[in-house]
Amino acid sequence: MPRANRYYIPGQIWHITHRCHKQEFLLRFRRDRQRWQHWLFEAKKRYGLQVLNFMVTSNHIHLLAVDSGDRDVLPRSLQLIASRTGQEYNQRKNRKGAFWEDRYHATAVEDGEHFIQCMTYIDLNMVRAGVVDHPSEWPDCGYHEIQNPRQRYAIIDRQKLTELASVDDPNSLGENHMGWLHDLLPSEGKKREEKWSTSVAVGGEKFVTRFKELLGARATGRGVTIGKGVSVLREPVVPYNDDFVPEMAHLRTKNLHYWRIYPENS
C-alpha cells in the first residue's frame, strides 16, 4: 500500500495529499466522495486517527491530521481509506486496476500560525480551482464540521484543532475560522502555494532546521529555504505539482523514499 515521499518523526502535524490514478476524475461522483469520508470516520474509530481538516475533490484528497507518536496510525488509516474507497468504486463500476497513485505525499507542518495557514489553504482548494466562490459551497470538506459541529459521527477532533490553532475556547473556533478565511478570500486565498504539497516540512526556521537535523543522512540534498515568516525543507525533485490542477497536474513516476521512524532525540 502507499509508499510516499514521507519521513516519520513522532508527534507531528501532517498534511497528506493523495491523487487518483493517472489524474482521472474517479471521485467526481458525490457518493464516492462520501464513501471516502465514511472510511475516514472508520479510521478515526479503529485507529484513533486525529483529523483536523480534509478536502475531497474530484481527483485528489487533502487530509490534515496529527499523530500521537504511534507510527502505525497514519499509514494504517490511509491504507484503510484508500483501499476500501477504491474497492467499492471498482466493484460498482465493474472496473479493474488501480484507483490511486501508489504514493501519497506527507508534509510536516508546525503548529500555530503555520498550521492555520495550511488548514485554510485546504479549505480554499476548490475556490482556487474556480469551482466555487466560497468553501461553504463545496459539501465534501471539513469546513462544514468546523463551522457546525456534529453531534454524532464527528470526524474532526475539535479539541485538538482548537489547541493547535491556539484558540482559547472550542466554542469560538468557528468564528475564528471564518475570520481567517475572510482575510484570505479576496486575493491571497486564490494563490497556489506549492510548499504545502511538495515539501518535507513547513514552519518557522527553528522548526524546519530541527526537522532536518532529526532526519540526519536522509536529509542529504534537501535544502532549507528561509523566507518571510516561513521556512521550508524542500524535496530535491518535486513529486507533485503545486495544487493538482486537473488539466496540468503531473506526478513523478518514481519516488524512492519510504516512511521510516526517526526518534525525537536522535
Structural write-up:
This protein has 266 residues and is α+β, with helices and mostly antiparallel strands. It has a domain at 13-193: Alpha-Beta Plaits (2-Layer Sandwich). The chain is built from 9 helices and 7 strands. The chain has a 7-stranded mixed beta sheet with strand order 2-3-1-4-5-7-6, with helices on both faces. Strand 6 (224-226) and strand 7 (231-234) form a beta hairpin. Helix 1 (30-47) runs antiparallel to helix 2. The longest helix has 21 residues, at 73-93. It starts with 12 loop residues before the first strand and ends in a 32-residue tail after the last strand.
Which CATH C-level class of the domain at 13-193 is it? Alpha Beta
Tell me the number of helical segments per DSSP (H or I, 4 or more residues long). Answer: 9
* CATH fold category name of the domain at 13-193: Alpha-Beta Plaits
Largest sheet: 7 strands, mixed
Taken as a percent bin, the fraction of beta residues is: 5-15%
Helix share bin: 25-40%
Note the gap between the termini: 28 Å
| Total count of strands | 7
Query: What oligomeric arrangement do these chains adopt?
Result: single chain
Rg, please?
17 Å
- Category from helices, strands and their pairing: alpha+beta
What order do the SSEs take from the amino end to the carboxyl end, as H and E? EHEEHEHHHHHHEHEE
Low-confidence stretches: 1-5, 238-266
Adjacency order of strands in the biggest sheet: 2-3-1-4-5-7-6
**Shape field:** globular
The CATH architecture of the domain at 13-193 can be named as 2-Layer Sandwich
Mean pLDDT: 86
